Amino acid sequence: MRNKKQLPNMNKANPTTFKCSVNKSAVKKRSFSNFIRSVILFLPLLLSGCANADNTNMKDQSLGDKNAIEAQAQQIVSFDSTQLVKTAEMLDEDLYWSIIDKSLKNTNNQEQQEQFLIKEISKLTPKQMIGFRLRTDKLLYDTYNAEMWCAGYIMNGGCSDDGFEYFRNWVISRGKDTYLKAKQNPDNLITQVREDVEYYEFESFWYVALEAFRQKTGENLYDYIDNDHFTTKEGNYPQFKFTWKEEDPESMKKICPRLFEKFEHN
C-alpha cells in the first residue's frame, strides 16, 4: 500500500504563519497592460457599431425623404391637369381670413406661418388655391394709397415700390382685424409694433398659394389666372398723389402721428 505523500507542515517548521509575498506594483502594471490590450481589441468593434448606427439613421432619414418626395410625385401624377381651367374667382373672404387667423394662432414667426399656410392651402381645391392668391391681390389693391405708404416708410425707415408690396403683405398676414383697422387708418398699425422686429415686411406671404398649387398639381398657378376678367391686381393699381414728402417729416407726422412719434424717437 502506497504511503500518501505528505505536504510539508509550514506551521510546524516555523511557528509564524506562512504568507505569500506579492509584488503589487507588478500586478498593477500587468492589469493596466491587459486593460490597454482589451481597449485596442474592442475599439474597432465599438467604432464599427457606431458607424453602422449612424449609417442606419442616415438611411432611415434618406428613406423618409425619398418616401415624401415619391408621395408628392404620386399626388401630382394622379392629378388630372385637364380639370384646371382659368379663373378670376376669389376665395370666399370668410374662409380666407379663417386660414390666416388659424396660422397666427398656431405659429410663432414668419417662417412657421409660411409653412403652415402652404399646408392649409394645400387642403383646398386647385380653384380655391387660385382664389386665395386672387383674394390676396385684391386686398393689396385696396390698400395701395399714399397714407399706407407713409406708414410703411416710417416703420421700415424707407419704402421702395417692392418694399411697399411686401409691407402690405405683412399687414394682411396679421389677420382681418389688423388689416381692416390699418385700411381705415394706417396709424393704427402702432398696435403691431414689436421690439424684436426689424422690418415689417413679409415677401413670401405673397407666394404661399403658388407653392401649395405647385406641390399639389405640378403646375404654375399664374397660368390659370383669368387676367382678362381679374383686374384688381398689380399693374392696374390706381394712380394717386403723395400727400407727404420724405424730406418733410412734419408731413408724415400729420398722417401717422403715433407711428412717427414711436419710430422717430427710437
Topology as a string of helices (H) and strands (E): HHHHHHHHHHH
- Shape type: globular
DSSP strand (E) fraction?
under 5%
Count of separate DSSP helical elements: 11
Q: Residue ranges: pLDDT <50 for 5 or more in a row?
A: 1-30
Would you report the number of β strands?
0
Protein name: DUF4240 domain-containing protein
Domain DUF4240: 92-215
Organism: Niabella drilacis (strain DSM 25811 / CCM 8410 / CCUG 62505 / LMG 26954 / E90)
Pfam families: DUF4240
Task: Briefly summarize what is shown.
With 266 residues, this protein is mainly alpha-helical. It is 60% helix and 0% strand. The chain contains eleven helices and no strands.
Structural summary, described in words:
It comes from Niabella drilacis (strain DSM 25811 / CCM 8410 / CCUG 62505 / LMG 26954 / E90). This protein is mainly α. It folds into 2 domains: 24-78; 82-264, no CATH class. The protein has helices at residues 10-13, 24-78, 93-106, 110-121, 126-142, 146-156, 161-173, 176-184, 208-217, 249-255, 257-264. Helix 5 packs antiparallel against helix 9 (208-217). The model is unreliable at 1-30 (pLDDT under 50).
